[in-house]
Hints:
Elements: E1 2-6, H1 17-31, E2 36-41, E3 55-59, H2 69-81, E4 86-89, E5 102-106, H3 110-113, H4 120-126, H5 129-135, E6 138-141, H6 144-153, E7 161-163, H7 178-188, E8 194-198, H8 207-217, E9 224-228, H9 236-243, E10 251-255, H10 262-268, E11 271-274, H11 283-290, E12 295-298, H12 303-307, E13 312-314, H13 319-331, H14 333-347, H15 352-370
Parallel strand pairs: 1-2, 1-4, 2-3, 4-5, 5-6, 6-7, 8-9, 8-11, 9-10, 11-12, 12-13
Helix pairs in contact: 1-15, 7-10, 8-13, 11-14
Amino acid sequence: MRIGLEVSPLAINSTGIPNYIRRLLRGFASLDTGNRYLMYTNRPLPEDLDLPSNFHEVLVNRPLPRFQLWFQLALPGRLRKDGVDVFHGLFSRLPLRMPVPSVITSHDLSGYRMPGMHKKWTHMTNLIYPVYMRRADRIIAVSEFTAGEIGKYFPESSSKTRVVHEAAPPEYSRVTDRAALEELRGKYGLPERYVLFLGTLEPRKNLPRLLEAYISIMGEIDHSLVIAGGMGWKSRELLDSLASSGAGDRVRLTGFVEAEDVPGLMSLADMFVYPSLYEGFGLPILEAMACGTPVITSSVSSMPEVAGSAALLVNPLSVEEIGQALLRLAADVELRSELSSRGLEREAGFSWERAARETLAVYEELLAEAGE
Length: 372
């Protein structure tokens, strides 16, 4: 089978969808030497992918390497020329003229149905989402929640949707090397005891309510609040709230955290809090669990599906609930230990090898149907 994959986001950064692509590729590589993978991109890929010989980069940079022209005008002909059997749009999009059977991954529908949570450009580009949903022969949703959203907003696409869960990076685990941890503490200016949030600082992450909740109980706990992640859209609101909060040095902003530093950051934290308003999957929940860090997260969208019974769930719109959960977990060592154990067990049920195997099964199902 010749499998075409859009991997162009790998050339841009290493967060979000690029991480999904990178880890799925490694999942494929870990179990499949028989199929040929053609990785289509408009820019050269990073040199550290370290993939076996059945993976091939295909650079398509005509008529223009940027924007949609390479993808919509040149890629369909290249797929035909290369004899691709199935094409997978890992970046939630497809060429509108598809010459081969196609699969698209739907990471979430927030850009389509929640314009206030994204930049105007993001919402505008997502208005074409219904076309992709109709054109795709199969849709991979990263959670049952996202599959339900597809069924609600694109009911005609429900029958061709399959759920394939993501997973934490296989290399993520609890860091016990004290020297390495102390070096990391110095690098990011981390306090002795802290509650951690990790993610892009943007409206969907609900950080103003988290900050308000923490300030309401910080006099009753020893923990600082560490907010780790790069500045996103409308992060100014959070910075203004922090400046006027009176929290002083009890709240720390680390800025962007390198992927290799995440396990240490999680391991040093007494708890991880992720009160997002909407997630297609909520990968940081599993990343924290892989490191043995107890989790507080939201009771909405995909987060209960990912967390199961291994986390404290809160209403993300309730400042009081978030604050009480922080207070409860800070005070209860036994509960933290119990959630840590449950989290490790929960996270072990997800893997990128499994995700790759289930994705391959979608390709095979589609090709079997096309050959009937």
